[in-house]
Known about the structure:
Layout: H1 3-15, E1 18-19, H2 20-29, H3 51-54, H4 56-72, E2 79-84, H5 90-98, H6 103-108, E3 109-114, H7 118-127, E4 135-138, E5 149-154, E6 163-168, E7 171-179, E8 185-189, H8 203-206, E9 213-216, H9 220-232, E10 234-243, E11 253-256, E12 259-261, E13 271-273, E14 276-277, H10 278-287, E15 291-297, H11 298-305, H12 307-316, H13 320-334, E16 345-351
Parallel strand pairs: 2-3, 2-5, 3-4, 5-10, 10-14
Antiparallel strand pairs: 1-7, 6-7, 6-9, 7-8, 10-16, 11-12, 11-13, 15-16
Amino acid sequence: MTPLEAEIRRMIAVDGPISVATFMALCLGHPAHGYYTTRDPFGRAGDFITAPEISQMFGELIGLWAAAVWQTMGTPARLALVELGPGRGTLMADALRAVRVVPAFAAALDVHLVETSPVLQRRQQETLGGIDIPLAWHRDLADIPDFPLIIIANEFFDALPVHQAVKTPSGWHERMVGIGPDGRLAFALHPDPMPGFGALMPDAVAREPAGAVYEWRPADVATDIARRVVNRGGAALAVDYGHVESAAGETLQAVGRHGFADPLASPGEVDLTAHVDFAALARTAQAAGAQVHGPLSQGEFLRRLGIEARAAALRAKATAAQGAEIDVALARLTGAGREAMGKLFKAIAFADPKSGALPGFDS
């Protein structure tokens, strides 16, 4: 039994089963035993690899995207470049190196990294230690200074806690985590249906038969992001994996050592994620007054930003072995195969409506 499981069992013994969202929040963010607060999970030695760790091309293109957006904003003299959940700092390091080709943009930047994990913050400080652009770390987006901003969120939304509901003949019941008959942690349903819940979801989901599972995330984070870019001027780019249309289906999963695991088996020791509902993200941003761009596949987004030309430029200066690695990385970032990210991952942007078209999204 992990230390976090022992604590969760004590909570359940006192207050009864907890929601899936509460369970996920504890597993990932518990201050003493949470997955992200106690380790660096990235890379081949960790549990999974994200796009910035696959190739420098990803972060470089995101940096140049931000520079192009800054130009559409009228080149403000001061800009907050914000990354939510910056991992090891690899994306930001690659982005800031790339934007040296736009000196006025680099000179306008203050970089702000929103990170709750002390372990990862230390790793980010190591990665970005040689950067001569102002850097600041925060635990919350609310701490970002009040001036125009561009927000980057790569594989951020998939780690936000997700609620689940299951349809029964008596209505939709929230899925909970409790103690099963065998003494292990187990999924259960709240005994009371959620009144009026079916009317709050898309019609196609509401018509699903009994047994259907629906996942949703609270809108507060996406609303906050959208309001900030509208009120201060700027844009937010989210790249994540998920589905374009809201639909029923269970996507909560656990990953450890580059393989799937039981989400309930080792609380705090494995990563928990769930697919992002991009249609819900878009609805939330629009309701907050933002203009939504996309979503479109990561592969298409990166191709529009010029990843193939960048790969060719890197390949021209590379050895044969390095060239082969570049080709593998390009295929993984843009391809549609089972191990590739190009189709499953999507890009979406929220922007101040006055910004107009955004690079990569204007076909």
